[in-house]
Amino acid sequence: MTELNIKRSDAITKGPAKAPARSMLRAAGYGDKDFAQPMVAVVNTWTTVTPCNMHLGALAEPVRSGVRAGGATPVDFNTIVVSDGITMGGEGMRASLISREIIADSIELAVRGHSLDAAVILVGCDKTIPAAAMALGRMDIPGLVLYGGTIMPGHLGDKDLSIQDVFEAVGAHAKGDISDEELDAIERAACPGAGACGGQFTANTMAMALAMMGIAPMGAGDPPATASAKAKEAERCGRLVSKLAHDGVTARTFITETSLRNAATAVVASGGSTNAVLHLPAIGAEAGVAFSIDEFDALSRGTPVITDLKPGGQYLAKDLYAAGGVPLFGRRLMEAGKIADAPTVTGKTLFQELETAEESPGQKVVLSVDSPAKKTGGLLILYGDLAPEGAVLKTAGYDAGAFEGRARVFESEDAAFKAVSDGDIVEGDVVVIRYEGPKGGPGMREMLAVTAAVAGQGLAGKVALITDGRFSGASHGFVIGHVSPEAAVGGPIGLIREGDRITIDADARRIDADVDWAARRAETTLRPANKMGGAFDKYARLVSSASQGAVTIEPITE
To answer: Are residues 410 and 324 located together in one domain of the fold?
Structure first.
């Protein structure tokens, strides 16, 4: 390809005044040809702390090869990872959502600081995926996201296992249904190697969403992490980002109101993670596009769940890939008129990509809009006395309906987990976990340890769980998260007392309590903020409501 007349990297490579910069770049192995081409950041989230990202160091090599083959120069950077699965249920989980902002910030600083022309971002664990799209939307440079792929299932006897089974085994163990030895066997078998958690949990949900959004190449994220096809997809991504750089096609071409709606449709139609209700508005905000959480509710009313994927269903992401992958799933939505055509980073439109989808004979993972797994989507947005700014109800695998029960109030996830483990929660209870929101946590911890313990005791769907924190993509049951405003800023969830009657009406999209709110507010003193110092306190000062994506930039509103 020919040299571009003007490129961002000219700021460090062109002209007599840039001789010192070129001198240092030459020491790092770059030369005249590299300076003449677009310089592409290969941003990696490789780490040895989690299987989700541990293979991304090796996957970067075919990406670099593709970048060079496309007539561009790869420049490598790395950024941080906080593993949700490893930190779950502990203080470290407070760092997870905060890491999303820091990952996006670090990508921006490295790319803008070195005046690079484009970026390809390799991702695996939960927060790295939305952070990559947020960074591209913020910078509005040519770029794309490559998902490292799902883990393969573990095996115990004839049963496929995922990390969800380990968390739920903890609850079964606490109840006495399985022995120490059985828990140990599940722990050792569930995660056989590289790749992100295997169900339609947050990583696979967001990878699917970015493909449907067009900012990740359709099909590139589908092969499992250990599949031979993954290296070929990585090389393709390198070529694609080079073409985007040469053509000057930037990220906001792909991050639009239409593409965000397509992504949200994929979330509700796949029974995906409630975390997407945080991440898609955040991606929109970074790209200057307003995307309300109410979109999820509107889409869920008219879009059925058309996959049989865990946590609400039977199958794992590797089964979706074998069935025909995200392209087959998207084609079903396209044929039913549930999504709109839009550009993608491959140069083809979304519909052009989906038209070539192939279905494996006899597959049972991807269903149809006419014969779905569930008639309405997997996420609902609730309002009411308890959530004036909204809350998210996950219904995948369960029929939406009504639930009424007595409040069991806990000031932290840890206290709630202990009560569940001790058998203090019974059918009909409404477990309220507060002071776990973006500011109050700080960091909005996920509650998979609690929901999995509930499921492990056979109570999923028989008790309700409500929190101003988050629920993991692997959570299932009658779970309501993101209650806004959160307790730490005076939200009504902070005024609930033990024994209050709470009513949830999913059909009416309401969550209410039989409380004299004015009297209760006059009697209640806000708990002091949970000060942790450093980045945690900085985040607490800056972060917006969960109803606005929990962003640390100015939220975008209608």
So the answer is: no
For residues 216 and 318, membership in a common domain is answered with yes
Separation in Å, CA 462 to CA 128, 403, 407, 426, 478? 34, 9, 14, 8, 8
Q: Three-state DSSP class for 379?
A: strand
| Helix/strand/coil (H/E/C) assignment for every residue in 314-340 | CECHHHHHHHCHHHHHHHHHHHCCCCC
For the chain, how many structural domains are there in total? 3
Q: Is residue 457 part of a domain?
A: yes
- DSSP designation for 18: G
Same domain, yes or no: 396 and 439: yes
Torsion of CA 150, 209, 313, 297, to 10 degrees: 160
Does 219 lie in the same domain as 274? Answer: yes
Give the H/E segment covering residue 160.
strand 159-161
162 as an active site residue: the answer is no
Q: Give the number of residues written for the chain.
A: 558
Q: Which residues pair with 122 in a beta bridge?
A: 44, 146
d(Cα 172, Cα 176) in Å, to the nearest integer?
6
Q: The domain containing residue 387 runs over which residues?
A: 383-548
- Give residues with Cβ within 8 angstroms of 546, minimum separation 6: 278, 437, 438, 444, 468, 470, 482, 483, 484, 486
Query: What CATH number did the domain enclosing 494 receive?
Result: 3.50.30.80
In a domain, 556, yes or no: no
DSSP 216-254: S-TTTT-S-TT-THHHHHHHHHHHHHHHHHHHT--GGGT
Q: Report the distance separating Cα 350 and Cα 258, nearest Å.
A: 11
Instruction: Please indicate, yes or no, whether the overall pTM of this predicted structure exceeds 0.70.
Output: yes
Distance CA 203, CA 130 (A): 9
Whether residues 245 and 387 share a domain: the answer is: no
Consecutive H or E run containing 20: helix 19-27
C-alpha–C-alpha distance, residues 392 and 275, integer Å: 9
User: Given pLDDT bands bounded at 50, 70 and 90, which one contains residue 1?
Assistant: very low
400 and 291 in a single domain? The answer is no
- Cα separation, 137 vs 553, in Å, equals 13
Question: Which of 472, 484, 545, 547 is an active site residue?
Answer: 472
Please indicate, yes or no, whether residues 222 and 84 belong to a single structural domain of this protein. yes
- Go through 400-437 and write b for each residue having 16 or more CB atoms within 10 A of its CB, e for each that does not: beebebebbbbbbbbebbebbbeeebeeebbbbbbbbb
Residue with tokens 């989980």: 93
Mean pLDDT value across residues 343-372: 97
CA distance 117 to 181: 54
- Scan for tokens 């008219």, then name that residue: 302
Write out pLDDT tens, residues 499-522: 999 999 988 999 999 999 999 999
State the pLDDT confidence band at 38, using cuts at 50, 70 and 90. very high
Per residue in 142-193, pLDDT (tens digit) is 999 999 999 999 999 888 899 889 988 988 898 899 999 999 999 999 999 9
Do residues 396 and 342 share a domain?
Answer: no
Q: Which two tokens stand for residue 292?
A: 């309300």
- 236 within some domain: yes
- Residues 447 and 455: their CA atoms lie apart, in Å, by 12
